[in-house]
């Protein structure tokens, strides 16, 4: 069994060889950006919210009632998920009379949903 001290020394020795790269990468880490990305993925980790994002990517805009109907959920549940997605800057909304319509915030979110789906489909193809 290798001693932990020897392992640490080996890691330090190998790190020294790549210190320019590791220093540059370490300085590129912006904690606020990382936290924001984490929160976005966390919001989309719920299957219903991912379904909503996918639906909005497909249709561009839906009202709360349409989302509830498609998901076979209550209007309150659909509204809750849509509100959370809006708070996370994933969707935006506009009001028309009594109806609130939601769409994806911007092309970055659309690309994220598209790329995620493509990755998922490729994963199944290449099994």
From TrEMBL:
GO biological process: response to cadmium ion
Gene3D superfamilies: Winged helix-like DNA-binding domain superfamily/Winged helix DNA-binding domain
Residue ranges constituting the HTH arsR-type domain according to the UniProt record: 29-124
Pfam family, one: HTH_5
Keyword entries, A-Z: Cadmium resistance, DNA-binding, Transcription, Transcription regulation
One MF annotation (Gene Ontology) recorded for this entry: DNA-binding transcription factor activity
PROSITE patterns xrefs: HTH_ARSR_1 (PS00846), HTH_ARSR_2 (PS50987)
InterPro entries reported in the protein's UniProt record: ArsR-like_HTH, ArsR_HTH, HTH_ArsR_DNA-bd_dom, Metal_resp_trans_reg, WH-like_DNA-bd_sf, WH_DNA-bd_sf
Name this polypeptide is given: Metalloregulator ArsR/SmtB family transcription factor
